[in-house]
Amino acid sequence: MTTRRTRRRVAPLGPGTRLPRVLTIAPAVPTVAPDPSGLGAEYRFSVPVLRVRDVRATAEWYRENLGFTAGTFPDRAPHDFAILGRDSVQLLVRRSDEPGWRGSVAHSGWDLYIWVDGADFDQLEAAAKRARAIVRPRRTMGAHIVEIEVRDPDGYVICIGGPVRVAVMQA
After folding, report:
1. Residues whose CB is less than 8 angstroms from the CB of residue 70 and which lie 6 or more positions away in sequence, other chains included
2. How far apart are CA 124 and CA 148, in angstroms?
3. Is 127 helix (H, G, I), strand (E, B) or coil?
4. What SS3 state is found at 85?
5. Of 29, 59, 93, 166, which is least packed with CB atoms within 10 Å of its CB?
6. pLDDT digits (tens, 9 = 90+) for 26-39
7. Which residues contact 111 (CB under 8 A, 6 or more apart)?
8. Are 55 and 82 contacting, i.e. CB atoms less than 8 angstroms apart?
9. Rounded to an integer, what distance in angstroms lies between the CA atom of residue 156 and that of residue 112?
């Protein structure tokens, strides 16, 4: 009797899939804690606000390179701010005319970390190369996480990370 081994691709890890406990990176798990304010408030989520030179140009960059949609306010330019969204990630961008507040080309660390499930990091890296946005090329971190760092048009460094896609041997 002969045993035949075949290789099959496993679908990317989906929502709810857990990595080994030590390596799990995910939104904070809601905890029940006493409310010291006595207001009965429940904090649901936080949305980063990025100051940008040109709201329209920034919204377009996030749409073209990362697939975000945008709602700009007011509807006609010049826009004061925009709500950018994709899946369960939201960013707010606000127009700022303050001189010298951003734009350093030196790598000073991450401004945002976005976790994605099921990303094709080859395709993501190719898009970032076309946009000349790569700060750090794709790199596998340990056995379970892959990351890439990109710079948006306002100088913010975004680290995009996700689970490594794996192929398993099936007997």
Report:
1. 59, 62, 63, 82, 83, 84, 85
2. 9
3. helix
4. strand
5. 29
6. 455 555 666 777 77
7. 50, 156, 157, 158
8. yes
9. 8
Residue 127 neighbours by CB under 8 Å, 6+ apart: 65
Q: Encode burial over 39-74: b for 16+ CB neighbours within 10 A, e otherwise.
A: eeeeeeeeeeebebbbbbebbebbeebbebebebee
Q: For 44-86, how does the pLDDT look when each residue is reduced to its tens digit (9 = 90+)? A: 788 999 999 999 999 999 999 999 999 999 999 899 999 999 9
Bond from prior residue into 74 cis (ω within 30 degrees of 0): yes
- Considering the entire predicted model, what is its pTM? 0.71
Among 87, 95, 96, 94, residue whose Cα is nearest residue 66 = 87
Nearest to 162 by CA among 66, 33, 40: 66
Q: Which of 123, 121, 66, 119 is nearest to 90 (CA)?
A: 66
